[in-house]
Amino acid sequence: MVLNILKKLQFRRDVPAEISSSGEVTVMHVSDTPESVYPFVQRLIEKISPDYIIHTGDLADNLKLERRPELLPRYRGAIRKLASILKGSGAELYIVPGNEDDVEVIREFFGDAVVDPGTVVEIEGVRFALGHRPEEVLGSPVDFRLYGHNFKLIEKGLNGVLGVNFVLLPSGRTYRIKYPPGTDTCRGYKMWRGL
Fold this sequence. Notes:
Elements (H helix, E strand, L loop, with lengths): L1 H8 L7 H4 L4 E6 L7 H11 L3 E4 L16 H16 L4 E4 L7 H8 L8 E5 L2 E5 L13 E4 L9 E3 L4 E6 L4 E4 L5 H5 L8
Parallel strand pairs: 1-2, 2-3, 5-6, 6-7
Antiparallel strand pairs: 1-8, 4-5, 8-9
Helix pairs in contact: 3-4, 4-5
GO molecular function: hydrolase activity
Pfam families: Metallophos (PF00149)
Organism: Thermococcus profundus
């Protein structure tokens, strides 16, 4: 029942016109995505056509491999679906493994797009630190720190658990579009941690 409600609600998020009409290079950042938000992510990609997509880990966050390794076959199927969406976008991809991910499976589907936590990339002269956990992106002199894993906020940080982030370049303007209602429930969170 929760998934049926999510399917009805997940397409009601509005995309700010500034993102799709800016004429700037667009970086899309997601993290900790349960399978239930894959259609939502796909819709955003179709509406915005980002130039770069960065996923900072826990690609199928409803499947907790760290605690339930027997879910690996189901996880592989989920990663296949997400890879089809992300690779089909035509965007340049960066994928950071999270604590709930299987690195071998991610490499199987994403190949050279997989980068280590703490990697710094430069896009249009702007430096991004990429990690799954906040502590993996601290310490590097960068313009933006992209991460997920929990609800912490850090300096120059964009937390992909809180919503889908967009960075427009070269202006550096940022936008966040919240995930559909119920996303945290699908992630297995009963309440916002730390609040």
